[in-house]
Specification:
Layout: E1 4-9, H1 17-30, E2 35-39, H2 47-51, E3 59-60, E4 63-64, E5 67-69, E6 72-76, H3 91-103, E7 112-116, H4 123-131, E8 135-141, H5 145-161, E9 164-170, E10 175-176, E11 183-184, H6 191-198, E12 203-206, H7 227-243
Helix pairs in contact: 1-7, 3-4, 5-6
Length: 244
């Protein structure tokens, strides 16, 4: 099976895009897939925190060795700045970093290589579309009307490059009331459906608002037996089906 390249995008920050990228990568690995994850959000990297990895990568035979955790091979600019200091560089340098992560890291044999992209339609998404052909995309939004409206722009960019949108993930869809068993729509309703309709796509999953518990394998990774873990398993199955 050739490598499937999958970017996780959003129109704006704060919608949980990186959490979706990391948990989807782990869920795909739990399905027996060989998975790599590139943290392409150079300025706002969060994969090291979500996966609880602060190791600096080694170079062997002029090839950068990715850091592996929970069955996923990882690369992030955060691994190069373990003191959590900001990455300061201008636009043209960003493309070089992404190219290095893509071409000079020893990814080995992978079924899926995921890219956690920065929000919006700036330099990095453009550079990645030039660098990687046949790129698939998942668009992350919340139910809020503004979030889905902004997310449309990121999805529309994919359509113009000729790549394919696999579907929409609606994050923070609701809070499950533990006493009344009702769903509380804290951030609005139907944002994912509106976005799917405008992009001629489909909603793959709706995630509730829920924090990982004490049994979670990493700070931002949900345990496989939790509600969110099961939902990420559903998302992984959907991705496998759509890319097979």
């Amino acid at each position: 099976m050739p490598t499937t390249y999958l970017s996780i995008v959003s129109g704006k920050g704060g919608v949980g895009k990186s959490t979706v990228a990391a948990n989807l990568a782990v869920s795909l690995a739990n399905q027996g897939k060989k998975v790599g994850l590139i943290d392409a959000d150079i300025y706002g990297f969060s994969i090291p925190s979500i996966m609880e990895v602060r190791t600096e990568p080694q170079t062997i035979n002029e090839r950068i060795q990715p850091i592996e955790k929970l069955g996923v091979k990882l690369m992030s600019s955060g691994f190069l700045r373990t003191d959590n200091q900001p990455i300061i560089m201008r636009g043209p340098m960003l493309g070089r970093v992404i190219k290095t992560f893509f071409q000079e890291v020893d990814w080995g044999d992978t079924d899926y290589l995921l890219f956690d992209l920065p929000p919006g339609t700036g330099d990095i998404p453009l550079d990645l579309n030039d660098l990687v052909k046949d790129l698939k995309e998942i668009v992350v939004t919340t139910p809020h009307e503004t979030a889905s409206e902004v997310a449309f722009r990121a999805g529309a960019m994919t359509s113009r490059t000729g790549n394919k949108i696999l579907g929409i993930v609606e994050n923070m869809s609701y809070i499950q009331c533990s006493d009344c068993h009702n769903q509380i729509n804290l951030f609005g309703e139907n944002g994912g459906d509106r976005l799917a309709q405008s992009l001629a796509s489909q909603v793959l999953v709706q995630f509730p608002v829920q924090r990982p518990d004490a049994n979670s394998p990493a700070l931002g990774i949900y345990h496989t037996d939790s509600l969110m873990g099961k939902k990420y398993n559903e998302l992984a199955h959907a991705v496998i089906k759509l890319t097979s």
